[in-house]
Amino acid sequence: MSPDQLAAVVMMGILLVMVIGGVHLAFALLFLSVVFGLIFQGDMIIPMAMLKFNGVMESEILIAVPLFVFMGTILEKSEVAEGVFQSLYELFGKIRGGLAIATVVTCTIFASCTGVIAATVTTMTLLAVPPMLKRNYNKGLATGVVCAGGSLGILIPPSVMLVMYGPMANLSVAQLFAAALFPGLLLAFLYLVYIAVGCWLRPELAPAIPDEEAVERGPALYKKAAKQMLPALFLIIAVLGSIIGGVASPTEASGVGAFGALLVAAAYKKLTYVKVRDAAYTTLIVTAMVFFIIIGAGIFNSVFLFLGGGALIKSILMAMPFGKWFVLSVMMGILFILGFFISWQGLLYVIVPIFLPVAISLGFDPLWFGLLVCLNLQMSFLTPPFAYAIFFVKGAAPPEVKTTDIYWGVIPFVLLQALAVLLCIVFPELVLWLPRVTLGA
User: Fold this and answer.
1) How far is CA 201 from CA 96, 138, 141, in A?
2) Residues in CB range of 127: below 8 A, 6 or more apart
């Protein structure tokens, strides 16, 4: 190991310590980039940093990030999720685990309309957790369902993660959206199977609602449910359908989606100046955070690669025994472990650019590898101590819900997410079939 490579290792170690210590990821990346850049690159660090900053600001595809965030925020304020959940609540309430099933289905529909999870998780916590606890649902199951279901939005398109991954990995975002659809639906299916089987084996986990509260099924109920889901279906077709169908680019579709969300809010009579202003303010904060991380990670990676850190890690991975599948499992394991301590944005822009050349050198399809990465990073939302979904649920849940209840509740869903990663490895067509058929990938 050369002195420069040792400095790269130290640089990465300090980053991990700073993030675990509570320093915001963007500031930690920028600080270390400047310090190590000035030491080892001198004045060259300044024009290089300006080029990275300019490249991010000129990226056309990244325009979709604030538009999708705005779309999700407006939807959260238009109360679309409330209507969908109420209809599904009435449809599934008479069976064991029916409210948990309604929660997952609502989250899946909402995930197909927006790539932002904070609004989904918080909204579903307020909507679904109190009714489940009132009907003696297990606290872990009630909160775990919301954490897992609400996090589907980071994978099911339109996903902000996929929008950010595309330009970083030089992949088409439209192809990523098509590739992510089946894995995202697979996850939702696994959640539903777990709930149904678990409640059948252990009825005390999630009893059916009492007969006096049950709503009789019939044409009127089905018509009401369909009416409540129409706005969401409208947005899914407008955004996802236009992208996969090749009618619009992701950036164009994000504009359509933002406008469509405004129309939905107006239809629900929720389109007010205050709500639009608050949505714009939330969009500004989220977008600024995301772009600071992208810029900081870009500069950090340039310095890290200049010092030979990327070459060092690649040589270590390529020298491992047992073939390429063992190397893939090591990379997936490292991403999973780091997900306990570093946010998905940091892993996406700091670790993945180091792993991606290794995966390509081993002969793995970059689109398929990208979806494995995104599936893996989704687990970071449920793995403490830095688990965003757990924080959102705890902040909005009733006082009787303890953090330990949520921790125990998410464990089965983390295992199901790991199973989904394994299934996509064993059956790569789950990822590659739709983009090949629709977009010729």
Assistant:
1) 10, 14, 14
2) 81, 82, 85, 106
Give tens-digit pLDDT for 83-111: 777 777 777 767 788 888 888 988 888 77
pLDDT one-digit tens code per residue, 184-218:
999 999 999 999 999 888 888 888 776 665 566 66
Exposed/middle/buried for residue 325 (C-beta within 10 Å: 0-12, 13-18, 19+): exposed
Pair 18, 35: CB distance under 8 Å: no
Q: Cα-flanking dihedrals φ and ψ of residue 15, to 5°?
A: -60, -45
Look-up of token digits 């290089």: 48
- Angle at Cα 101 formed by Cα 435 and Cα 116, nearest 5°? 50
pTM of the model: 0.82
Q: Most confidently modeled of 39-43, 229-233, 341-345, 432-436?
A: 432-436
The alpha carbon of residue 161 and the mean position of all alpha carbons in its chain are separated, in whole angstroms, by 6
Tokens 């819900």, residue located:
401
Burial class (CB within 10 angstroms; exposed 0-12, middle 13-18, buried 19+) of 230: middle
Sign of CA dihedral 294, 296, 297, 302: positive
